[in-house]
Amino acid sequence: MLHVSNLTKKINNQTLVDDLSFSIGRGRVLGILGPNGAGKTTTMRMILGLVSKKNGSITINNKSLDTEFERALMGVGAIIEAPKFYPHLSGIQNLKYFNSLDTNSDNNRITEVLELLGLLKDGRKKVKYYSLGMKQKLGIALATLNQPSLLILDEPFNGLDPHSLRVVRRYLKGLASKGTSILISSHIISEIELICDDIMVMNKGKLVGDFKVNELSFTASYVLVSIVVDDLSWAASVISSQFNLVCCIEKESVQIKTNETSIPNILKELLNEGINVYEAIQKRSSVEEKFMEITGGGVIA
């Protein structure tokens, strides 16, 4: 489906992508993880012909990007960075307009795709009134309207609330089950873990590791814990001071990484401080553990 071989990109004396090779089979979902500046977006741009390459080859559906550029990209859908739309047109009008620029366009699928993505009731609303998450789903709708054989998505989960994340995840997995190959980059590692079959890790332009998600064992040395409380700031202060842990406040919960045996003591201390604890959810992240092992603790961005 997609074959990338010895791909290299240089600007002046800086190497952005360095001798990168990988493949995606039909109906597979490949995730790219890597620290900020690893070369993930640049790689996607080269596959789409948006930026030039110094060396290497890119083949899509057995067609070379060098010799059959238009035919190679004919069955490709993509979102690179934030999707752009005409704000004074409705979602449906935007889809019809951009779709009309494609000679193989099919407006008959607009209603179906919007419904699958949970946007149908807002389809006639002007895009200037859309939230960031709604615009993101509209971009995914446009990229998949003509049932691409290859879908390339750069940070597609930005701005999505938990419900929309589930909707988009289900939609993309449905596309893959029907044969669409997907290349996806995201800093939301939990979504990458849930949606991808395979993961490759980039660092400083190089491929530094790859693995299949279903082959990972859940033997992480720590667990991720989300604690829902009535006083987020005070809870974070107690956990930080009493247990020397880094806390991250997200919406209605305090997020921490700790060993499993510490969880009861942390919850007991919060209750002793008069903090109401409504829920505590722990989740091992085998993909994050593997990423940390490969990169030596690089930050996913």
From TrEMBL:
<dbReference type="InterPro" id="IPR003593">
    <property type="entry name" value="AAA+_ATPase"/>
</dbReference>
<keyword id="KW-0067">ATP-binding</keyword>
<dbReference type="Pfam" id="PF00005">
    <property type="entry name" value="ABC_tran"/>
</dbReference>
<dbReference type="InterPro" id="IPR003439">
    <property type="entry name" value="ABC_transporter-like_ATP-bd"/>
</dbReference>
<protein>
    <submittedName>
        <fullName>ABC transporter ATP-binding protein</fullName>
    </submittedName>
</protein>
<dbReference type="InterPro" id="IPR017871">
    <property type="entry name" value="ABC_transporter-like_CS"/>
</dbReference>
<keyword id="KW-0547">Nucleotide-binding</keyword>
<comment type="similarity">
    <text>Belongs to the ABC transporter superfamily.</text>
</comment>
<dbReference type="GO" id="GO:0005524">
    <property type="term" value="F:ATP binding"/>
</dbReference>
<feature type="domain" description="ABC transporter">
    <location>
        <begin position="2"/>
        <end position="229"/>
    </location>
</feature>
<keyword id="KW-0813">Transport</keyword>
<dbReference type="InterPro" id="IPR027417">
    <property type="entry name" value="P-loop_NTPase"/>
</dbReference>
<dbReference type="GO" id="GO:0016887">
    <property type="term" value="F:ATP hydrolysis activity"/>
</dbReference>
